[in-house]
Design a protein that fits this description.
There is one protein chain. 48% of the residues lie in helices and 3% in strands. It is mainly α and 149 residues long. The chain has a domain of 99 residues. It has four helices and two strands, in the order H-H-H-H-E-E. The protein has a two-stranded antiparallel ribbon with strand order 1-2. The longest helix has 51 residues. The chain is rod-shaped, with a radius of gyration of 29 Å.
Length: 149
């Protein structure tokens, strides 16, 4: 005599359509959360990279200004036929070509903003930045404190 499994025991094999749907929804929810977190992380790293570029240019400008005895708000001597501070910094080795491209607006911010130098021939006053990003208002691409720069 053979023992046959009851129909109830046979129906427990595998997943029902509802269970499969719930598993897929949970996985999709986790993927959405992952993408939202990755986007926030990317925006944060882009902001940090932009601020570091602004800070590096500010430090190079102040170093050049202090080393050669210029006062804030003054013009540098015309060297090589120009008073463009970034050109002086590049020629004297304070910055590299990529930083010069930032100052001239030829290279974009990591979030595709543009850099500008409001007064490229004038050393900035204390508390002002030599180079700014176009995303400083919308995405906060500006250092939190730079009053003593």
């Amino acid at each position: 005599m053979k023992i046959q499994p009851s129909p109830r025991a046979m129906s427990k094999c595998g997943l029902t359509l509802i269970e499969l749907t719930v598993v897929i929804l949970v996985l999709l929810s986790l993927i959405v959360v992952l993408f939202i977190g990755a986007r926030g992380w990317k925006q944060g790293t882009d902001r940090a990279g932009c601020i570091l570029k602004i800070r590096a240019m500010q430090m190079a400008t102040r170093s050049y200004q202090n080393l050669y005895g210029f006062n804030p708000g003054t013009l540098p001597y015309a060297s090589g036929g120009t008073q463009f501070i970034a050109q002086h910094l590049l020629e004297k080795g304070y910055i590299k070509q990529g930083q010069y491209d930032n100052a001239t607006g030829d290279e974009l911010c990591p979030s595709n903003g543009t850099y500008s130098t409001p007064f490229p021939d004038t050393f900035p006053l204390v508390g002002n930045l030599y180079m700014t990003c176009s995303l400083s208002d919308t995405q906060n691409h500006i250092p939190q404190t730079y009053a003593d720069w």
